[in-house]
TrEMBL record:
GO terms for biological process: phosphatidic acid biosynthetic process. The keyword Lipid metabolism applies. Residues 260-279 are annotated as: Disordered. This is 1-acyl-sn-glycerol-3-phosphate acyltransferase. It comes from Mycolicibacterium gadium (Mycobacterium gadium).
């Protein structure tokens, strides 16, 4: 199926949504040191990725700590609130989708197998990490294979594994949002497993909503990383919402989860396209 197909999810976000990070002239030396230190530790963490493949007791804790360290290297701090994080296995975790950073944010709270676009496997550094985390690849240009992806997710859930998916099907800037597509929720219905909605939002040091972490439009991975490590600090808030029982209707389940994640937040009518990292 063509990338121009009307059936593919489209975001109304583009480069104009993303906040720029321009350091004042008097702080450029400080920013340069900040970037150098963060980049150095990030490369060291990427070099340690093979250690994640070692089967050790408490591996989920290792993954959580690794993701938190990577967030810190990117200049991102995490704050978790809301309901208790239940130590359940075989849960479908869903949230809104802003950036590739979402993977580390969720991985630091509820690690699991991520549903990711197939191209991510070939990303430098992050692609190797994706393979070690055994992502479930999805090809947005061939939606005829979507039922196979849903079946794979259901099988993983039935095998006792936690799976993370982003039902919007594409990234948004974090100020505008997309509709939750029901396809991924069919896996939870088929497997008879609950869904854990998470509300993700990115903020600046002053607590105001920020789009620095957004990965939309014609943005590149390098430009996105540069924005993050240049900024003084970015905070990702992860709010744990009420666990949702699967029921028998995937559309009802999708609506319930979207309501839990969005609350009263309005959608924007901006034009543009998001990066479809995961569907």
């Amino acid at each position: 199926m063509s990338a121009d197909s009307p059936w593919l999810p489209r975001a109304t976000c583009d480069a104009s949504c993303v906040a720029a990070t321009v350091a004042p002239a008097g702080q450029r030396v400080i920013v340069a040191w900040r970037v150098a230190i963060r980049a150095t530790f990030a490369f060291l963490l990427l070099a340690a990725v093979p250690l994640l493949a070692i089967p050790v007791p408490g591996r989920s804790h290792v993954q959580r700590n690794y993701c938190r360290l990577m967030l810190r290297c990117l200049g991102v701090r995490i704050a978790v609130s809301g309901g208790p994080i239940r130590n359940l296995q075989a849960v479908l975790v869903v949230s809104g989708h802003v950036s590739w950073v979402d993977i580390f944010a969720i991985g630091s709270v509820l690690p699991g197998r991520f549903v990711a676009k197939s191209e991510m496997i070939n990303w430098p550094g992050l692609g190797f990490l994706a393979r070690l985390m055994k992502v479930i690849p999805i090809d947005r240009d061939n939606l005829r294979r979507l039922p196979d992806v849903v079946s794979t997710i259901a099988a993983r859930l039935q095998a006792g594994q936690t799976v993370v998916a982003f039902p919007e099907g594409t990234t948004w800037c974090g100020v505008a949002y997309g509709q939750f597509r029901p396809a991924m929720f069919q896996a939870a219905v088929d497997a008879g497993r609950p869904v854990q909605p998470l509300r993700l939002s990115y903020h600046g040091r002053d607590g105001q909503p920020s789009t620095i972490a957004a990965y939309v439009g014609e943005d590149t991975l390098l430009a996105s990383i540069k924005r993050l490590i240049t900024a003084q600090r970015t905070i990702v808030w992860v709010q744990v919402e009420s666990l949702q029982l699967p029921g028998t209707d995937r559309r009802d389940l999708a609506n319930r989860c979207e309501s839990a994640v969005r609350g009263d937040a309005p959608r924007s009518a901006r034009r543009g396209h998001g990066h479809a990292l995961v569907a």
